[in-house]
């Protein structure tokens, strides 16, 4: 049998994040899915996909949270828990950093009809995932 | 009239792909022909039983002189990273198909979820190709 390219194992970790973001999984679980030590895994994941596994998992959760804010009437706390995050404070901060507005303001900015466009889920999941932003970028922006 | 007859996906191992598409997905082999004069190239196609007019080629990634080694490696990598393409399958009952495939060992990356256009789920083949399994909502025409 032909040897599996190393990236295929890293893809399993990415798939784990996509499939189990709603549970309390972390980078250690992703590393296990790729059968690599955590440090080696994080390096290889970033080299292969251009972002760290932590960033990928967080932005996956925030993409899902944004979708739930657009398509449900769940409270922000319920949305937070539904995407595998436990701290509402961190969730609100991360969400505001990635989407530029609070979860509540984000929800209010979308007319309900926008949620019903016939775009396949695999497309919305890929294109809806926010670009990762750090506090460092915020301070760089305010310094410039 | 022009129809889609055959489309190909790259696979990193034809035998492994064949087992997956037939034993796990329940497709049938439509063609399995090897050509000694073409370096044992194996033309291998599968399709769902009952759908007569379309086939998927499980295409091995060639080496030189068909494809230079560097490009072949790039294709292998792109495929393993999950970016080589997607097959969109349709079903009348997404939840039922999901249970059946899961029982046969298919690892889903997305369990069935209600979407504006129907019920959608997703998994990968052993090579890393993305496969969607969707129960498309009946939308009245007009």
General description of the model:
The complex is a heterodimer of chains A (144) and B (142). Chain A has helices spanning 6-20, 27-34, 38-49, 53-71, 76-82, 88-99, 103-108, 121-128, 135-143. Chain A has 144 residues and is an all-alpha fold. Chain A has a single domain (6-116), classed as Orthogonal Bundle (Arc Repressor Mutant, subunit A), CATH 1.10.10. Chain A is globular and about 50 Å long. Chain B is of the alpha/beta class and 142 residues long. In chain B, strands 1-4-3-2 form a four-stranded mixed beta sheet. A four-stranded mixed beta sheet of chain B has the order 5-8-7-6, covered by helices on one side. Chain B is globular, with a radius of gyration of 17 Å. Classes of the chains: A mainly alpha (144), B alpha/beta (142). Chain A binds chain B through residues 1-2, 4-8, 10-11, 14-15, 18-19, 48-49, 115-122, and chain B through 12-13, 15-16, 76-77, 79-82, 86, 88, 107-111, 113, 115-117, 120, 122, 124, 127-128, 130, 132, 134.
SSE inventory with pairings:
The complex is a heterodimer of chains A (144) and B (142).
Chain A: H1 6-20, H2 27-34, H3 38-49, H4 53-71, H5 76-82, H6 88-99, H7 103-108, H8 121-128, H9 135-143
Helix pairs in contact in A: 1-2, 1-4
Chain B: E1 6-11, H1 14-24, E2 28-35, E3 41-47, E4 55-60, H2 69-80, E5 86-90, H3 94-103, E6 108-115, E7 118-124, E8 130-136
Parallel strand pairs in B: 1-4, 5-8
Antiparallel strand pairs in B: 2-3, 3-4, 6-7, 7-8
């Amino acid at each position: 049998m032909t040897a599996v390219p190393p990236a295929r194992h890293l893809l399993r970790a990415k798939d784990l994040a996509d499939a189990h973001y709603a549970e309390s999984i972390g980078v250690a679980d992703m590393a296990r899915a790729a059968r690599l030590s955590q440090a080696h895994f994080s390096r290889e994941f970033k080299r292969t996909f251009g972002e760290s596994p932590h960033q990928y998992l967080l932005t996956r959760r925030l993409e899902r949270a944004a979708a739930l804010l657009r398509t449900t009437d769940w409270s922000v706390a319920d949305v937070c828990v539904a995407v595998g995050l436990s701290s509402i404070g961190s969730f609100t901060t991360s969400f505001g950093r990635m989407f530029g507005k609070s979860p509540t303001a984000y929800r209010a900015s979308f007319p309900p009809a926008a949620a019903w466009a016939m775009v396949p889920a695999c497309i919305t999941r890929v294109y809806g995932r926010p670009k990762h932003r750090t506090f460092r970028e915020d301070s760089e922006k305010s310094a410039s | 009239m022009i129809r889609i007859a055959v489309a190909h996906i790259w696979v990193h191992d034809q035998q492994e792909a064949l087992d997956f598409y037939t034993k796990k997905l329940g497709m049938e082999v439509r063609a399995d022909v090897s050509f000694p004069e073409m370096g044992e190239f194996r033309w291998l196609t599968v399709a769902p039983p009952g759908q007569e007019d379309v086939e998927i080629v499980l295409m091995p990634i060639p080496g030189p002189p068909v494809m230079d080694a560097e490009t072949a490696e790039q294709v292998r990598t792109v495929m393993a990273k999950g970016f080589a393409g997607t097959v969109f399958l349709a079903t009348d009952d997404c939840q039922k198909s999901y249970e059946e495939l899961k029982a046969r060992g298919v690892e889903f990356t997305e369990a069935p979820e209600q979407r504006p256009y129907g019920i959608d789920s997703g998994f990968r083949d052993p090579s890393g190709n993305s496969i969607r399994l969707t129960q498309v909502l009946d939308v009245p025409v007009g």
